[in-house]
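WARN retry 2 of 3 for item q-0093 after timeout on previous attempt; input resubmitted unchanged.
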Amino acid sequence: MNTFALLMREAGVEVRAGLRSGIPLLVFLGLTGYLLMALTNADYVQKMGASEVARNAPSLIYLMSSGCMFFLFFAWAWVFAQPALRDRKAQLEEVLLALPLSLPTLLWGRFIGASVVGGLLASSLIVGFILSPVLGWLGWVPAASIGAPAWSALGFAWVALLLPVSSGIGALYYLLALRSRGLAAPFGLATVLMLLWMFAVVVLKGGDINPLLAASLDPSLFTFAHAQVETWTAAQKSQSLLALTPGFWLNRALWCVLPLLLLAVVLARTSRQGLMGRRAGALLAEPPMRLAGGTRLPGPLLASHWPQALWQETRWQIRQIVARKICWVALGLLLMMGMLSGFVHVVWHVRGPMVPRADLTLPLLSSALFLVIAFIVAALVGLICRRDDVEGLGEMLEATPAPVWLRLLAWVGCVSLATLLLALVPGVASLLISAIAAPGSLAPGFVLIYQLLVFAPPLLELALLALLVHALIRHGGLAYAASMLLTFFLVLNHELGLVSYPAYEMAIPVHVALSSMTGWAPWWPYLVTLTSWKLAGCMVLVAVAALGLPRGPERRRIAQVRMRLQGVPGVLLAVGIMGMLASGVWLHRHLVEQGDYQSPSQERAERAAWEQRWLAGAGAWQVAGGSLQLNINSLTRQVEGQWRLDKVVADSRQLDAELPQGLRVTAARVMGQAVTVEQGMQHLRVPLGECAVSGCTVELHWTLSATGWPGEGENFWLGPHGVWLEARRVIPRLGFDSERWLRVPAHRVDAGLAAQVPLLPEDSAVAAQAVAPAGVWEWRITLDGQSVSASSAAPLDFAYAWPTATSATELDGVYVLADGSRVQTSLEVREDLEVMAACVARRLGSSPRVDALSQWPTEMGPSRLSNGHLLLAQSPAWDVAAQGVGRWARREHIAEVLARRVLLDASDLRQQPGYQWLSHGVAGAIGLLCVDDAEGPQARSVLVKLKADDLTLALGRDGEPLGTLSEAREQSWAAFYAPLASLDWVARQPPAELMALTAEPRVAQQWPATVQSLLGAPSEQTIAEALRRWGTP
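OK item q-0093 returned
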């Protein structure tokens, strides 16, 4: 047989063998199905910044082709290892190597065959995009949301992104399999590639360290693709190809050309003796047993000690893991990667430096390491469960009289311990970072609780799910592929959004708003219940694995399952089901019935129903003031409210209001007469009658229950642990909130609404950052028997904090509230407040009163000044160090909040079109100018450039159509664009002109012609001019 014929024959044999195994088909169908499911999910497409382009646009092709590659790392490891292992498994290795054939040709042929199979696996993503029009034909997505196949982009992704890396990395897998004669080495390389991917994405790209190095080290080229796509406009996302930068060519040379050259050199020097002399790693040898002189041999077996046997088996399984140096080396590398990620994103952050406290570093490190740890856990489960897959050994073990659950529970014990060790890695990395950079902020107890109750349960859930797959599937390769594919689906569920209910999000850590200010006390009931649910589910998984575990050559029978139900598996199953029922009912009660959890589809449906039911009755309204009384019981988490509104005038003869979560109006009176109100979908409508023309006196009575648990990770604001009271949480917000509208045309059409977003009638909107417009307001708040009262003539808004773990300190006439680890930071913040208040007074003619300054816990809303109480959000304002960009940004933020309060109080602004320009544009520009005054042009130029970067990212990620600034949402790209667009104009205005401007919306309810040009759509020319003028020192 000539060389070419031998090459083609071996390649063909390898292709047929690979396809017959069923694993490529499983992976191919799984990835294709995953892609199609992703394209049907509007929220996922919106997160990818593709709401204005087709769902099969080139930008999505590039991102998903490279983003899904980390799963293919493990699939390719199995595919390219099979040519080196298949003959040995069939005991034909000696026969094959003795044949008078060219060994390099034979090995090259097998590699070519494996490359074909690997290329077919990579093409699954391309096939998914080709099949995407089927989604429109079936009606699963709007037909207009799927465009014609972008053949040039598909070809580019196949030729430039997928095929080269498949062959290049495959060469490395092939070499390792030839050398080790086992699967451990290729899977180890796959893990290393995952670590490199994480290092490039999280450390290099996330830390803005070196784009060229990030693009070069990332084998998947995701960093290369994402860096370009996130800056593209909608037109570019629909038609552009990726630019082939030096980073691209360096990456292809490193991961494609060099591995193939190395393979050619190694295969040319490979000998038959070298291949025959290599064996896969054996089990750790037990110490030799020696018979002591006076020892007697045991007699016949009289009793079975299965618990002792279980202990011995578990110890042996654990010893196989912990006694291997490679495991500790891998754990050390993971720890070093975590520490490096923490230093880059915290200590050396581009907007820092930051102080590495536990409530800042734990979520960051856990998010950065979770994906890698999840795949390591899945691979480790396979190695543990398949360790006994040695010919003859499995049959010997199954012939023993040991119960079927004994070895399975030993696997569970070993897997659980290994998973726990891996789950502690982010916590240990956090402690080490704190010990090095901020020894005073060490909190080992805080870290341990997070790792054990937040991070470890989902990993254990994933591990036991993978163990179930290996227990039910006899074929080792198929079980590996199935478990890895399942892991891929589960860990990406939070991106795909197929399941959003916390209890049903398997293998996903729950989102917890960490804050040293509130501690763990408010989270204990939720975390204990959710952990109980997950552990009970783990018991069910173990029980099902024990029931279905095959034993012996006989086929599984119903009678065998019945018999096992009467033993330990049945007990585990019963206990697990009862635990899931109890904890599941408790979770549903607090998350859904009493809480605010809604799936994305439910939220969209409620917004559409709100618009259909209430918007038609919107009309202008005014109120002169009133009196408010609140009674708060922190122990029962209940609030009772009574609000008298004076001289209420409404064109529609009805008063509308938006209701906070959990508030229910119990009674209403108009001019002393009881009236029947309408309330639903967190909205209230009070009929006013004839007095709506001359002015009504309205009384509202309500109760509010805050016993629910936050579904989106928001912090607890009311409870025995402390009270963090804001008016918006306990009082109806008068008017209509335009932020509740659906903005995406496809969503509106699907919900039966007009594609065009409607406009509210003049003076019908809610007050900007207040619950009611300016008037003569009085309020009295009673908390557990203690009262506080105040009054104001500004828009109605207030905030109070009564924490139980700390107390306020008076610093130069301002009461400052911060946790014990931020005492020094509170002094720095107080200094920043003084400097920025003086600057705002110069720029606007006056500065707002600040009586109290509080570290506002994480996930309790953005910073704001509320009736003399400055609520400064914990992140990042309370995390930055004393010097650097972070402190400049904090000063700019404080000045912006102070200026916003002055402007909103003077203008009595509603959420009318363009209010973002005054609230964010003018206030944000004054913040930048104040940093210029206090820190110099260098500081100002740095912050302007950072804000421009934020704008670019916000525009690329915005899932809603980009309109004008006057139509934008408050928390959107407008927060970054408005200050940059307004900076030059604001800098030219004297204080008197700026304050005179605030009278325009109060009197005329429209913006003067001088600022109309600033309210248009985002302009590249405007940003370029701002960078040229203000982005240089």
